[in-house]
Design brief:
The complex is a heterodimer of chains A (296) and B (349).
Chain A (H helix, E strand, L loop, with lengths): L5 H4 L6 E11 L11 E12 L4 E5 L6 H8 L7 E6 L2 E2 L5 H8 L2 E4 L13 H12 L5 H14 L16 H13 L5 E5 L7 H18 L2 E6 L2 H7 L2 E6 L2 E7 H6 L4 H9 L3 H13 L11
Chain B lengths: L4 E12 L2 E13 L4 E5 L6 H9 L7 E8 L2 E2 L5 H7 L4 E4 L3 H4 L6 H12 L4 H14 L18 H13 L5 E5 L7 H18 L2 E6 L2 H7 L2 E6 L2 E7 H7 L3 H9 L57 E2 L9 E2 L23
Helix pairs in contact in B: 4-5, 4-6, 5-6, 6-7
Classes of the chains: A alpha/beta (296), B alpha/beta (349).
């Protein structure tokens, strides 16, 4: 599908420009002589992300949203198409140049238990991107920036001495965010960052991410299957189905007036939505019990 | 007349080096055939422990007191042999992870047949016939879904259907579903919830649905319990609980859920993104629960008396909402029911 004008009429240069990405995976051969079948995870996906913007990618498992995220971060090489980050084609860069570029985009993953090395102190974990992506940062400066990053995510400086197992899931996700922030990136790619967290903690982390976006002018590429989370945190949203973007637009517009059938199907499936939408707050506010049968 | 399933003052503790850690305290519950009860709470609140206690599957070190009665018979006092006859036959369970609940090296047919051969003493042929009928019923019709398939040949939703078929195999009286849809995509989630509802209506089972998702409970269950730190903090008919939300935790949980924002714009008038009403702090460790109400340290309404002793679960009164109760000394008054789902009528659909 073509990219709507929204990114093009804007004055600001796009931070990320994805054009016609195609990513195929080879599947195991079925017979000896036939060519190996392929699975196409991305069928020509295009999108634009402006600086400071939060773009959501929603879809069900297997729709290609994580492949898209990995490709945008140049962790996967597409068969066709390009990813331009700050105007430079990531797949045309040399290894060294790509490495230098990586400090400007960082990632947060779903599992706050699996994504932090249990044998390293939090200070070392958070400092890791500086060590591996930036040259000539001395120990004192590194330590100062680790403290700053921990402070930004609401953790005390003393956290640096501790180990991941001493923290709860929500705090671990804060550590992961601190690690992403430490190189002062322009973009954070978030793959299901709150789906492993409990509701009350999830809200804390989402609020933190909104605060950071405003304070630091961060852009997010926010991958999630959870429509409500996406509505809360994104400015624009792309709905993906089977490797294609089927609907794109301002988040409020897509949620309030979905244009594509698949978007509607997704929204309708959210539990609790029917009763609340149809019976509405009216019955509830007056304390009248809603008649279940009516709602079927 | 005794209820189908009745839990009275259930207390479960796990001995630790520094004194016992209470996992559940004073949990009461009653359930009849055809009823659907939702248990809601965050991780560590004790909702899964309650399920395991009913199944007699508590971890070895755990000590349980109180009573869990099935048709008047106390399961806590039952010998393991008796429990084996009940488990899977009269009380069955659907687990969260369909990937790990199934045996990867046995066919789905054999896994469904296993319990009917064991409990109902059916022959292999009868068991296979029954397994076929069950698979048809849960939406996996033959010949596409042969009994000879292995779990890895199925998708997540299909596997969960197999898990449900296994649970239903012996026609249990009580079905406990512990986060049955958490690992599934939303569209599949809706299908599985519909299937569970239909089956409960059709077979006259009682359903205990354990979830962290208020939306799932609201849609599926007539009655609900909200748990926090091992205790029931609010219970009653789902409509009453949602209409009132007496306990500050229930209200906090609802407000913190992004789902409450699903129907409204995520931005306020000035175009700034709205923040979610997060509950500050975190669920206390069972070994270090505060002496009074366990929610008091996170509660906006907490006063000094909250910190003295855990408040009992007391009925909130009102003749039309008989069993609505909350464990709170300063519950929200009913008049201030949150204006949830106030969003504009759905013009778009």
């Amino acid at each position: 599908m073509t990219v709507p004008a929204i990114g093009e009429i804007e004055e600001t240069a796009p931070l990320v420009e994805v054009r016609d990405l195609v990513r195929r995976y080879r599947l195991p051969r079925r017979t000896l002589l036939e060519p190996a079948p392929t699975f196409t995870a991305l069928h020509g996906v295009s999108l634009t992300l402006r600086p400071g913007e939060s773009l959501g990618i929603v879809g069900e498992s297997g729709c290609g949203k994580s492949t898209l995220a990995r490709t945008v971060m140049a962790l996967e090489t597409p068969q066709e198409g390009s990813v331009r980050f700050r105007g430079r084609d990531l797949f045309a860069l040399s290894r060294g140049e790509l490495r230098a570029e990586r400090r400007h985009f960082q990632a947060i993953f779903q599992d706050p238990y699996g994504s932090l090395d249990p044998r390293h102190s939090v200070g070392r974990i958070v400092a890791e991107p500086i060590r591996s992506l930036e040259h000539g940062v001395d120990g004192a400066a590194r330590e100062r920036r680790v403290r700053e990053a921990l402070d930004q995510v609401g953790l005390p400086a003393s956290a640096a001495e501790k180990y991941p197992h001493e923290f709860s899931g929500g705090q671990r996700q804060r550590i992961a965010i601190a690690r992403a922030l430490v190189t002062r990136p322009a973009l954070i790619v978030c793959d299901e960052p709150v789906s492993a967290l409990d509701v009350s903690v999830q809200a804390q982390v989402l609020n933190l991410m909104m605060d950071l976006q405003e304070e630091l002018g961060l852009a997010y590429l926010f991958i999630s299957h959870d429509l409500s989370v996406v509505r809360v945190i994104t400015d624009r949203v792309c709905v993906m189905q089977a490797g294609r973007i089927v609907e794109e637009g301002a988040t409020d517009a897509v949620f309030d007036a979905p244009a594509h059938d698949y978007t509607r199907t997704l929204l309708d499936a959210v539990p609790g939505r029917h009763r609340r939408a149809r019976a509405g707050g009216r019955a509830r506010a007056t304390g009248r019990p809603t008649q279940k049968d009516e709602l079927r | 007349m005794s209820r189908l399933l009745e839990i009275e003052n259930l207390r479960v503790e796990i001995p630790a080096l520094a004194g016992a850690a209470p996992i559940l305290e004073g949990v009461d519950l009653a359930l009849d055939r055809g009823e659907k009860l939702g248990i809601v709470g965050e991780s560590g609140c004790g909702k899964s422990m309650t399920a395991l206690a009913i199944m007699g599957l508590l971890p070895g070190a755990a000590r349980a007191s109180g009573a869990i009665r099935l048709d008047g018979r106390d399961l806590l006092a039952a010998a393991e042999r008796e429990m084996q006859a009940i488990r899977g036959r009269r009380i069955a369970m659907v687990f969260q992870e369909p990937m790990t609940a199934l045996n990867p090296v046995k066919t789905i047919g054999a896994q469904i047949a296993e319990s009917v051969i064991l409990h109902l003493r059916l022959s292999k042929a009868q068991a296979a016939e029954r397994a076929r009928a069950l698979l048809d019923r849960v939406g996996l019709p033959g010949p596409r879904f042969s009994l000879d398939l292995y779990p890895h040949q199925l998708s997540g939703g299909q596997r969960q259907r197999v898990v449900i078929a296994i649970a239903l195999a012996c026609g249990p009286d009580v079905l406990i579903a512990d986060e049955p849809t958490t690992a599934l995509d939303v569209t599949i989630q809706a299908q599985i919830l519909d299937l569970l509802e239909d089956l409960v209506a059709e077979m006259g089972m009682a359903l205990v649905l354990i979830t962290h998702d208020l939306g799932v409970v609201e849609e599926t269950c007539e009655r609900m319990m909200v748990m926090y730190a091992g205790r029931v903090v609010e219970s009653g008919r789902t409509d009453d609980v949602f209409a009132h939300m007496a306990h500050p935790y229930t209200r906090g949980l609802f407000a913190a859920s992004p789902r409450s924002a699903l129907l409204t714009s995520a931005r306020d008038a000035s175009g700034r993104k709205r923040r979610l009403a997060a509950i500050p702090g975190q669920v206390p460790d069972p070994r270090h629960r505060p002496p009074g109400c366990a929610f008091a340290p996170r509660c906006p309404r907490a006063q000094d008396d909250c910190r003295a002793a855990p408040p009992p679960l007391v009925p909130l009164g009102g003749p039309d909402r008989a069993d609505h109760a909350a464990a709170c000394l300063h519950p929200h008054p009913p008049a201030a029911a949150p204006d949830v789902g106030h969003a504009a009528p759905e013009a778009a659909r």
